[in-house]
Each structure stands twice: as structure tokens, then as C-alpha cells.
Amino acid sequence: MTPRITFIAAACLLAGSAAFAQMPPPPASGPVPPAPLGATPPVPPVPPMAPAAAPDAGTVATGRVQQWLINPNGDADGLLLADGTQVAFPPHLSTAVMQVLKPGDTVQVSGWRAPGVPVVRMQSLSANGRSVADQPPAPGMAPPTPPIASTPPTSRALREPGALSAMSASGRIERLLYTDRGDVRGVLLADKTIVRFPPHIGAAYGAQLQPGAQLHARGWGTRGAQGAALEATSLGPTADTVRELFSGPGLVPGARGPAGRGPGVARGAGPRSARDAGGPGAQPPAPLMAPPAPVPAS
Does the pLDDT of residue 295 top 70, yes or no? Predict the structure, then answer.
């Protein structure tokens, strides 16, 4: 080996040794020392998120149809089965479902069961050898044509579309009606009339809206061969104790008109006390219905 080659090999060896000496030692096993003061600590890795709880998909409910659940426009948007199960579907399927079955028929429903309430959101149903499925419309698909006089006798086919009538209903609450989220959205009276209201009304007066309680409702809806339904604008245990649920322009919510028959009191119509104006000493509105009487101890 020539002296030149020997010198080059020695230089490379010394350079590699110096680089190796500058490498930090591997971390020792054991607890990690705290970060220096003022240094940003390392961010721990984010654990994978657990998948959100999905509704119980694929549930099949089978039973005899007891009655249609119709909305205030007269469209069927649900079924009540004999075992109390409420089957919900969008109102645009009303005509298709009514052509497949009728009260008294046995139906088989596939869909999703809502937790905690007897509601099944329909994906498809079958009865009498025919079926209906809830399919989203294709892109660019035109909306369905309104029903005409030749359509099977639904309440909407027998009246002008969108026409609602002032209605009232009174009787014993037979059962509560729920959304597929578990909110109370209405009641079914003993005479099979359906009274609808927004879920926040059902939540606010849940203690009074119970099966067996008496209810009087006024509002707007329809009455036809498939049943009667109204959207309540005032509720109470009797006709003399109803209270307004909504206020129109210039009306005080919950106020009563002359002799207790008007929908409300116009703002600025006469002097108002501090209690009426919401000032000092104002009281919250009276409950929709009186709470049930306590049961005497035996």
C-alpha cells in the first residue's frame, strides 16, 4: 500500500469517528425528563375517535295497521300499528302507501327504530304483495304532480290543495305521537283526532300532556275520510281554559281577547301594568294546563 493511499484511508477513518462522536446518545429507558422551561411540550398523538352511535338499522316491524297518522294538510305521513308502533315516512309517499294498504291490513316495515320511543322510520314497507320504498329523487327529477279527482280517495284529492280550515278538538289523550328523534310532536285523542304541535311545546308541557288527561285544542287542519288532524294554535284542558301557543303581529302571546274568546290583545291597546309589561313584579305565564292533583296517601 503506498503512503498516499494509507494517508487517505486514515483521514476517512478519523472523519467518521468524529461524526459518530457528535451523535446524541439514544434515550435511556424510563420516565421522559420534563421539557426545559419555556419550551413547547410535544403534542401527544390524538387517539382515533370512536364511530358515532348509529340508529338500529334494518329493524323490521310487522303488525296490523290500526289507523293512518295524517298531518294537518291531510297527507298520511305515518301508520299506527295495533301494538302501538308508530311508522313514520315522508308525506310525499302518502298516495303511494295508501294505494298499497289500508287500515286492517298486515304490513311489514324495514327501517330504523328510534331509541326510547315506539317509532320506526320507514325505509321500505310491503303489504298485500306490493311494496313502497323511500328513495331519494334522481338529480333533475321534477316534483310529483298534485293529485287530481281520479286519484284514490285521499283527503287532499277532495279539496283544493293547501286549503286549511279552522278546527277544534276535545277529548281524552289516548297516546303521544313522537318524532324519530324521540320528541313529542302531538297527541292522538280518544276519538282518533290527531293534534299536532312543535316539539318545543311538547317538551315545555310534557308533564300535562299525558295519556288519560283531557285536552281541548284549536287550530287549523283538515277533516276527511282518512281522519282529522289539526296544527294547534291554542291548548288547554277545557274550551274555557285554552291558552294561545303563538302570537301574531301585534299580539301578546298567551293573552285572551274580550270575554276570553279573542286570539290575543293588541299591543298598546290600553294601559298595561308592570306585571303585564314584564317589568318588576312580572309573573311568568300561567301553565298551559293545571298540574294533576296529588294522590292522597293511603
Answer: no
